[in-house]
Amino acid sequence: MQTFSQLSAIQQLQVKREVSALLSEGKGYKKIRRIFTQQGIKLSLGTLSYWCNIETKRLRKNSFTAKPSKELAYFIGVLFGDGCASIDKKNHDYCLQLSSIDKEFVEKFSICVSKLLGKEKNYPVHRSKHIFTANIRSKELYQFVKEIKNDFEKAKPFIESGPVEFIQGLADSEGHPTVSAAKEFKIKVTVANSANLALLQYTQDLLIKFFNIKSTSRLTKRAGVTDSVIEGRKITRTKNVYLVETQTKTDTKKYYEKIGFNIYRKQQKLQYAIQITETYSIKQQQKEWTKKYIKVGKQWQLKPVQEIVQKAP
């Protein structure tokens, strides 16, 4: 016999759903308790009363069912990328958050989560200076996220129902087109960037299994290196960070055609780079690229429209 607290987060969600359905059928607490006792699950009358009066209202208001869908696959990709899951235990506040400079990325995340939680309207996207943020509060969804992060195997059935969307979620978060325009013009796609080796290996497996896209992985940042600053605090990495990127020009084109990015600036850069490789000679490719893009630090950024217009023949 298991108590409710001994069940996994996904099992707890399933029990709550069954209790809600049984209550709507008019069954009493004692009858419901007997049904679950027969299943080897111990529920107290106090717990059932609490769910009936408080939790079931929340369930109807913020309903989530852990079943495979394209929206859930994209959501999982984002949560293994830029997304954040946090809890304020004192105030019973379970928050899922995404912040980005790309408004369409946060809006896509909001649309997916709103559908997962049965909302008629999408969660609002707030802007602070140049950052867009969506905050979603859901205990059920938070518990689901924590469970699949603790046991990645549990995430796979949901991911494989929407491999395109999952990889897009990862790539929108941590990926980008990688352009080299030095001696030779080259283009690849960084699909994922993480310290989670199981996640990266699985992403490579998905790329080859569903899309016949070959990829490679390599170390990009070593543990112990201080290479970033957040709110004035220097951050020292505690783990090695690796990336997964497309292997060849053919693989990069397949990625563009079969998966792509939801973020417009990333998709636009990838599209333009591929167009250049297919339109111009090797000698002309670098020249054409620098007509539209300029290197700022280590990144290629789109030139202001005025500058492109002025230099146009």
Keywords:
313 residues, alpha+beta, Endonuclease I-creI, 3 domains, four-stranded antiparallel beta sheet, 14 strands, 49% helix
In which order are the strands of the major sheet placed? Answer: 3-4-6-5
CATH class of the largest domain: Alpha Beta
Structural class, by secondary structure, is: alpha+beta
Individual helix count: 13
Residue fraction in strands: 15-25%
Oligomer: single chain
Helix content bin: 40-55%
Number of domains: 3
Low-confidence stretches: none
Kindly, what is the distance between the CA atoms of the first and last residues, rounded to a whole number of angstroms?
78 Å
The CATH architecture of the largest domain: Roll
Q: Sketch the major β-sheet.
A: 4 strands, antiparallel
The CATH superfamily title of the largest domain? Homing endonucleases
CA radius of gyration: 23 Å
Q: What pattern of helices and strands is seen along the backbone? A: EHHEHHEEHEEHHHEEHEEEEHHHEEH
Mean pLDDT: 86
Question: TL;DR of this structure?
Answer:
With 313 residues, this protein is α+β, with helices and mostly antiparallel strands.
Ordered list of secondary-structure elements with their pairings:
Blueprint: E1 2-3, H1 9-24, H2 29-38, E2 41-42, H3 45-61, H4 70-79, E3 84-88, E4 93-100, H5 103-116, E5 126-128, E6 131-137, H6 139-150, H7 156-159, H8 163-174, E7 176-181, E8 185-194, H9 197-211, E9 215-221, E10 226-230, E11 233-236, E12 241-246, H10 249-258, H11 264-279, H12 282-292, E13 293-296, E14 299-302, H13 305-311
Parallel strand pairs: 1-2
Antiparallel strand pairs: 3-4, 4-6, 5-6, 7-8, 8-12, 9-12, 10-11, 13-14
Helix pairs in contact: 1-3, 4-5, 4-8, 11-12
